[in-house]
Design goal:
Distance between the termini: 35 Å
Strand content: 5-15%
Largest sheet: 4 strands, parallel
Radius of gyration: 18 Å
Structural class: alpha/beta
Order of helices and strands: HHEHHHEHHEHEHEHE
Strand order of the largest sheet: 1-6-5-2
Length: 238
Amino acid sequence: MISLLDLLFPKQCLGCGKWGRYICSSCQRNIKPLRYLKCPVCEKPAIDGMTHPGCSTKYSLDGLTSFFRYDGVVKKAIKHIKYRYVTDIVSELINFIPDSHFLFFPKLLKTKHLSFYFVPIPLHPSRYNFRGFNQAEVIAQALHKRLNIPLKTNILIRSKKTIPQVEMKDRDKRLTNMKDAFEVKKQIIQSYELRPKTQELNIVLVDDVFTTGATLRSAASALKHAGAKFVWGITVAQ
């Protein structure tokens, strides 16, 4: 059944222009899934995306999962979400992810005996007020609905107004730009520390794209310094 919203603002495929969906079935077949997962620190291939033992530190990400290559129609879709505010594209992208790509969650839960929470990478308040939404939060909400993993948006704060990473091509400058960009609400962490050990705060950070990893690394460091025990990263593309 066609909704009133679709009649007023009909969807058009970002790849070929066909009406009806943002990504038609033909263009969906051209989406390139990642052939392997990589360590979020050295960016070399890693089993299940886990951080290599030699790359791991007390405050680093424990691993990273991304689903698609950041090119073609996926790249167009993410740019439309962020800069044209077409947030309903998110549900189509998340629905394209095969069930097999989510197997790392039960595997980690079984191995580590952890309870996870999705935590979206926050925007600085000034950018959020300008845009009116946080694309990482919209993605996290879609993942929450699909996987039934709890979502927490009140833990991580973006306290430093940074230059948009897309405007910076130099890797070192990106890392410097994101240094100390996040803070954690200490009372939230403390409330989890009072719970039984099986309820420790273990987080899956959610963002749209992984490039140098500067944003996810900075957020993971802030969370672990505040007491989080385990932090995994998840992005739609890289």
